[in-house]
Amino acid sequence: MTTAIRVLDLFSCAGGAAMGYHLAGFTVDGCDIADRPHYPFAYHRGDALEYLAHLITTGDIERYALVHASPPCQAGCGLTVGTNASQGWGGTHTDLVAPTRQLLDATGLPYVIEQPNGRARIRKDLTLCGEMFGLGVLRHRNFELGRWATPKPAHPRHRGYVRGHRHGVRRDGPYVAAYGNGGGKATVPEMQHAMGITWTDVREELTEAIPPAYTRFIGRAFTTARQEVFA
Which of 14, 106, 136, 156 has the most C-beta neighbours closer than 10 Å? Predict the structure, then answer.
């Protein structure tokens, strides 16, 4: 009997990344500092970096074959460094990418760091887009792959605009804006349908989630890479 590969999902939010790994055949354990009652898998509530340090110290990190981390992105995302900065909106944000990577390196395990487009200092080993998977969102996300690699998929041409208001212009298009509120942004049911997320109806969780199709792709690629190493 084959034992499922176990992945640790740090900064797990409501489980968009986790569900993708599950669909790729992984067993998933999550960790997030906020209460996430909709998270669909085993879950530890607490500071993700403190929990990771604890797992390293105790040796319990050896239960895992892969670690996925989606540290808060507000410090380097396009909205923060673009519109919000130009308008003087928002506050200061702590960049957790570097300390996350430092601990991931200390695990000795393969890992994935996920961030949106912007100024986050990660290698863009993969860039995934909803159009690659026939989704109703674009939601570009970059992924740094530590201790493993996979070929980059081709980025297909977008079929049109994201529906809604932008810079004073309203456009229609095949994609919905799964962030914010008002201005033609997607409703909760529209976000659920566009991203393939059915287990939470909390707007704030949906606006932060990545579509499970992304990590299903990554999980399958990791499984292939792992099999090649041990072949």
Answer: 14
